[in-house]
Structure formats: structure tokens, C-alpha cells
Amino acid sequence: MGSRKDSAGTDDGAPRPRSADLATPGEPPAPAGHGGAERGPLGSPGRHHSEVVLRVNGTPHTLTVDHRSVLLDVLREQLRLTGAKKGCDHGQCGACTVLVDGRRVNSCLLPAVAQDGCDITTVEGLSGDDGDDGSGGEPHPLQRAFLDRDAFQCGYCTPGQLCSAVGAVAEAQAGHPSHVTDPAAPSGQPVPLGPDEIRERLSGNLCRCGAYPNIVRAVEDVIR
Q1: What's the predicted TM-score (pTM) here?
Q2: How many Cβ atoms sit within 10 Å of the Cβ of residue 63?
Q3: Cα–Cα distance, 37 to 51 (Å, whole number)
Q4: What is the DSSP letter of 44?
Q5: What is the pLDDT of residues 115-144, one digit of tens each?
Q6: For 179-195, b where at least 16 C-beta lie within 10 A, e where not — what string?
């Protein structure tokens, strides 16, 4: 009797090849997960990994990263900077927001290997401290304003809100308009940040606790 086949057309009972059996001769097998430390000959990165230099909160880090790893996972798992949070993992909630070369980004969508040589600021780096963890430094004015205004409840989204607010204020000062900016406003001139501008510019950051009114007030306190 012929052997049955499963839905993928593979004979039942036939041995399945292991990842080690599929490896190219002379190279180690592909890692099971995204955080492995695959190494090639003489300790160089293997074909699935590359060495990058990320300058995080003012400190350069030379890391070997999997080509599939996103910046959020490298920050949290390799550098232990857990301020940026994994919320939706689809770039829709903003909990993972950090600053890359001064611009706010969703770190859950950025391949870490593509950030080689970039300056990255996480919520840990917003304080006046030069270290990665932000301990011992003066709070950023926005951090102090969030505390004074009680602009959070559970706090899960707060790191992303803070980084996004820092980026939004910088964008407005540089003259970048938003969807609610008056079309008659002078091009390239700083955009005044009223409540509507703040809401629009922070609309990519979601807060399930509904702390939005106090978040807006905290940003207003800083830009006065």
C-alpha cells in the first residue's frame, strides 16, 4: 500500500530534514530564533547576522544582530533598555516610539541592521544623565510635566508618548506642518503648538487609560 500524504504533499512517516541538515557546508545552521549569536569562520558574523554600531543615548554599542531583528527587540533584549514597549507590534499604537537621528520612529518596524551608525534616543536617555539607563540625571522637562499633570495611569504607553512629544515639539520648531496647520502659515517658520496641533501630532500614540487631556496639558506646559 502506498504511503499517505499530508496536506503539504509530504509522505507520512518520512524523515523531515533538520535545520542542521539544510545548512550550507562550512557554515553553522540557521538559528532557531531571531536573537541567536550565529558566527561564521574566525568569529565573524554569519550570513544571517551583521555587525552594527548603534549609538544609544550617547553611548556607542557594537552589536551582532540578526537580519530579521527589529530595533525594538535589540534595544530590549540585547541592550536591556526596556522603556520602549511592545504594544501592537504593527506600528499602530506608538508604545515603541524612540528617536532615531532626532526623528521619532516606531522601533517595532525598523530592521536593526539598517540603523548602523545612527543616533538613537530612548526614554532612558531623555534625562540629563549621560548613561544608557538615564539614572541619576535630571528629568527631561516633559517627564517632569507628565508627573506634575498626572498624564498617565498604567504608564505602559508613557515612554512612547514622551519620545513622540519630544519629536513633535522639535518638528514644529523646525517648521514642519501637520494636517491641521493653517495653510496660510509662513513656510519653514516654527509652527505654534496649540491643543489641536498637539493632538494631531501625537495622534499616532494610543493610550488605553484615556489620559489624553493631561498629556496635551503637559506638552503645553513645556512649550510656554
Answers
A1: 0.78
A2: 18
A3: 11
A4: -
A5: 999 999 999 999 865 455 555 578 999 999
A6: eebeeeeeeeeebebee
